[in-house]
Every structure is written in C-alpha cells, then in structure tokens.
Amino acid sequence: MATIQEHYNEVLSDVYSWMYGGFESNIQRYTDIFNKKKLSPQGSGIAIDLGAGCGFQSIPLAKAGYFVTAIDLDAKLLNELKRNSADLEIKVLQGDLMGFDKDLDTKAELVVCMTDTILHLDSRAKVISLFAKVFAALESGGKFIISFRDLTYELKEIERILPVRSDESTIFTCFLEYEPETVKVHDILYRKVNEEWKLSKSYYRKLRLSKAWVNEELSQAGFSKTDLEVENGLITITASV
Ligand SMILES: C[S@@+](CC[C@H](N)C(=O)[O-])C[C@H]1O[C@@H](n2cnc3c(N)ncnc32)[C@H](O)[C@@H]1O
Question: Is 57 in the pocket of ligand 1 (CB under 6 A)?
C-alpha cells in the first residue's frame, strides 16, 4: 500500500482542485461556510489548518483576518496554496499534522481539519491523541472544526465503484473495499497525454468513524459543546473549548 504522501503524489495532488469542481469555486464555498458560522478573529487570531491541502480553508480564513498556519504532507498541494495566496500571510509547513503543536508558543483561536483529513490518520488512537492536542492548543472560547464522511455504512458489490469526475481529458473513478476498521480507497485516474490515455492508480486507507464516535471522543477530550451539520453526506462538527 502506498503511504498517504505517495498516494497524493501519484494520483490525487495533480487533480485535487479539479476533482472538487475547481479552485475558485471551493474558495468561495468555504468563504460562505465560514461567513455562515460568523467566524472572525476575536482572540489571538491564530488559526491552524491541519491537512490544509491547496488551501480551500486556509485562504478564506486568512482573508477573514486570521494568522493562518497551513500544515500538510503534500508538497504539490502546498505549492498550489502558495501560488494562490501570494498576497496573504499564510505560514506554510510541510510535515505531519500530529506535530502541529511542537513550536506553538501562543494558544490558537481556531483549528480546522476538514474534508476527511482525520480519516487519513492510521488509527483511532491517533484521532483521540489529536483531539487531546487540539484541546490543549486552543484558548478559552476557541473552536475546532472537523469535516468528514461517515464510512460506517457499507456499500455493496458494484455500488462500490464510484465515478468521481470526468471530462474530455481526465476520468477519475474510485473503488471502495471495506475492512472492519478501515476502507481501502482505490483511486483510478486516466489522463490523456499526447492523444494517449495514461493510467495512474493507487490505494490508501481511510478510517471508518461514525459521527457518534467522533462526538463522544471530542467530549472525552474536554470540548464542552459540539454543533453538527450534514450536507451531501459530509459531516461538519464545530467543537468549542
Ligand atoms: C482530503 S484532503 C483535504 C485538504 C483540505 N483540507 C480540503 O478540504 O480540501 C486531506 C489532506 O490531508 C493531508 N494529510 C493527510 N494526512 C496527513 C498528515 N498526517 N499530516 C499532514 N497532512 C496530512 C493530505 O496530504 C491532504 O492534503
């Protein structure tokens, strides 16, 4: 199995924005989501984006006035973030999000970890450890926003073949293989290069976490209040200190 880093480098990073419908539309989408949540700096102004990718959350948060640190393993996605935020002060770190608190000398006001990033961690124990670290890193009144898909429901047989997106030069399909604690996500990408279809394929594992489990572990970590929304199967939980 590829590591997360290898999987993104081999298949996902080059088409990530395209796969989600384009860079600008996602910046607008998250600007709207954060506006709806009435997020604006009220305390230290420090926001940490765990698994920031190409910046769908970091860029709107920086535009809203937060001092953002964007952390991700993937160099290509971070380069896309940097290219698209030259006028903004975003601190970009390439590395493992589990170490986000290493050099943090002031408590943060906001931590986000969105679009399945927590499902990329290799165990539930790591998720529990991350929740404890985030709780300790947040100031009083601080918020932690997570979004993920609940993969506990098992698709059967050919339902497991998912067309992700396609156009005249790119076809992206995903195949899911269920295991008790995880799902093997096989990504299959065809791109037309010089009139020939070039195949990239790789798989990685995602954790199968239910919203009830995540809520319970957030409360065990010390978060006092959680607010939960579901949109097109994507669960967003906002937990407060
Ligand atoms: C599904 S993407 C989400 C990116 C972004 N938050 C968004 O909503 O578009 C997951 C991201 O998490 C990163 N990632 C996964 N595990 C990581 C880890 N342990 N440390 C840092 N980044 C990680 C991947 O490289 C990828 O960019």
Answer: yes
Instruction: Assess whether pLDDT exceeds 90 at residue 103.
Output: no
Q: To test the ligand 1 pocket, which listed residue (14, 33, 48, 72) has its Cβ within 8 A of the most ligand atoms?
A: 72
Cα separation, 109 vs 182, in Å, equals 32
Which CATH architecture is the domain 157-206 placed in?
Single Sheet (2.20)
Kindly list the distances between the CA atom of residue 109 and the CA atoms of 131, 146, 193, 225, 238, in Å, as whole numbers in the listed order.
Answer: 15, 15, 45, 15, 13
- Average pLDDT over the chain, rounded to whole? 96
Q: What is the pLDDT of residue 226?
A: 82
* 135 dihedral zone (left: phi>0; alpha: psi -120 to 50; beta): alpha
Q: What is the pLDDT of residues 146-157, one digit of tens each?
A: 999 999 999 999
Q: Is the CB of 115 under 6 A from ligand 1?
A: yes
Enumerate the domain spans of the chain: 4-151+209-240, 157-206
| Percentage of residues in the chain having pLDDT higher than 70 | 100
Q: Which CATH number fits domain 4-151+209-240: 3.40.50.300, 1.20.1250.20, 3.40.50.150, 3.50.50.60?
A: 3.40.50.150
- The pLDDT, as a whole number, for residue 217 is 97
52 CB under 6 A from ligand 1?
Answer: yes
* Residue 59: its H or E element: helix 58-63
Would you place residue 26 in the very low, low, confident or very high pLDDT band (cuts 50, 70, 90)?
Answer: very high
pLDDT at residue number 159: 97
